[in-house]
Design a protein that fits this description.
This protein is mainly alpha-helical and 275 residues long. The protein is 19% helix and 0% strand. Among the domains are: 3-65, no CATH class; 177-275, no CATH class. The longest helix has 11 residues, at 3-13. Bound molecules: heme C (5 copies).
């Protein structure tokens, strides 16, 4: 953190200015629940040396954020069918290469300068505050159940806009290819490892149903009329295959198939069972 930012932080924390406030639900917290003005062990004058431990100090089954609990054992281990959450201790590669097993590119090449700055602060590790901005609900999440108005609760404190999975694609750059690239290697921009296309409209090649069926085979509906097909006909929102809002129907994105937290790759599992 720069000297100037450190000064602003000190002024704010010692009650000099009330300009910065956290958005809900973190608005119920005091700045000093997470920050110490003096002798702070963590990045950003935070109260814990580790960013993850700071989040876990409340986000655990006995903490004030027990509704959304985490523990380190929930993290996915690449190459093993273990874990129910995107990891929060993975390290970004030091150089960008299409042959990275997860399609990751180096921090220095990321498009989002805020996410780049966080990775630099946290020794290149993808900790909670790389993907989340714990102060602000301004950025747009993917979750079709979240409110559309910036600043409201349940927008998941995103670090970057993610309605088109920009956040995922920024790091997992080489996984982000359209149908033409995945089909024709001469268009693949150096990529030698091919992935399921993203960003293409459902059924644009005539391979798909005109609208998705959920994992129980029940046709999803599009109550919002935006092409997302997030309508939940069987009362199990976890098994929906949701699209983006680019068209009618919308496009397939990473989070049409993946979830970030509370998921075990079993379409019978309910989110609350995995908390
Ligand atoms: C839920 C915990 C939490 C609360 C509550 C919180 N912060 Fe932070 N804040 C953090 C973390 C973690 C960082 C460092 C990580 C980062 O850079 O995002 C940080 C960083 C900052 C920074 C550095 C710039 C930035 O945005 O990263 C400022 C300034 C700041 N906080 C001010 C405040 C003020 C003022 C309040 C009270 C209105 C507050 N914070 C409440 C966790 C919190
Ligand atoms: C790789 C990026 C990434 C990391 C690392 C990450 N998250 Fe998330 N998290 C997300 C995204 C993206 C969403 C919203 C998903 C959506 O819109 O459907 C989310 C959602 C959440 C939610 C809301 C969950 C719900 O079901 O209501 C909480 C709480 C949360 N994250 C906390 C954390 C904490 C605490 C950590 C660290 C222990 C963490 N996250 C690490 C990307 C991440
Ligand atoms: C001092 C306690 C405390 C700390 C520390 C804390 N949180 Fe929270 N957080 C809460 C509470 C309380 C909620 C609301 C939980 C609920 O829904 O009942 C919450 C909710 C959230 C949500 C869900 C809100 C939404 O809009 O979906 C996210 C995401 C989140 N926290 C991320 C973080 C991250 C990242 C950190 C670490 C930088 C962190 N929190 C640290 C108390 C805390
Ligand atoms: C800041 C960079 C970053 C962002 C943003 C990010 N990832 Fe990752 N992702 C990683 C890293 C690094 C790993 C490797 C984890 C490890 O080595 O433990 C990883 C691993 C994964 C894995 C393999 C399982 C696991 O967790 O290890 C999946 C699947 C994945 N990411 C999907 C996503 C999706 C979907 C999104 C968007 C919601 C996303 N990632 C956002 C950096 C990122
Ligand atoms: C059509 C569904 C679908 C889409 C879209 C999709 N994935 Fe996946 N992804 C999967 C499945 C299924 C697996 C598990 C494959 C396996 O076990 O071999 C997987 C595995 C992964 C892995 C684990 C490493 C590996 O290759 O086994 C990563 C990382 C990953 N996906 C990232 C992404 C990112 C980032 C996006 C968006 C750019 C994305 N995926 C889009 C279905 C999808």
């Amino acid at each position: 953190m720069g000297r100037e930012l450190m000064f602003i932080l000190l002024v704010l924390l010692t009650g000099g200015v009330q300009a910065l406030a956290s958005d809900p639900p973190h608005d119920s917290l005091a700045c000093t629940d997470c920050h110490l003005a003096h002798g702070a062990p963590g990045v950003g004058l935070t109260a814990e040396a580790s960013n993850v431990n700071l989040c876990l100090s409340c986000h655990n089954p006995a903490g004030t954020a027990s509704a959304v609990p985490f523990s380190n054992s929930m993290q996915a281990e690449p190459e093993q069918a273990l874990g129910t959450s995107h990891s929060w201790n993975g390290t970004m590669p030091s150089s960008s290469s299409p042959s990275n097993p997860y399609g990751l590119r180096a921090t220095a090449d990321l498009a989002d300068s805020e996410m780049r700055a966080r990775l630099e602060n946290f020794n290149n590790k993808v900790v909670c505050s790389v993907c989340h901005n714990q102060h602000s609900q301004e950025r747009t999440p993917w979750d079709p159940a979240s409110p559309g108005t910036p600043g409201l609760a349940n927008r998941h404190f995103m670090r970057s806009d993610n309605e088109l999975n920009q956040l995922c694609q920024d790091c997992h750059y080489y996984r982000a290819m359209g149908y033409a690239q995945a089909k024709d290697s001469s268009l693949a921009n150096g990529t030698t490892v091919f992935s399921h296309p993203v960003g293409d409209i459902l059924n644009s090649q005539g391979y798909d149903l005109p609208a998705p069926l959920d994992a129980n085979g029940v046709a999803q509906t599009d109550p919002s009329g935006t092409g997302r097909y997030a309508g939940d006909a069987d009362g199990i929102p976890e098994n929906n295959l949701v699209l983006d809002a680019t068209a009618q129907p919308g496009g397939v994105r990473c989070l049409s198939c993946h979830r970030v937290h509370y998921t075990d790759s079993n379409s019978l599992s309910r989110k609350d069972d995995l908390k």
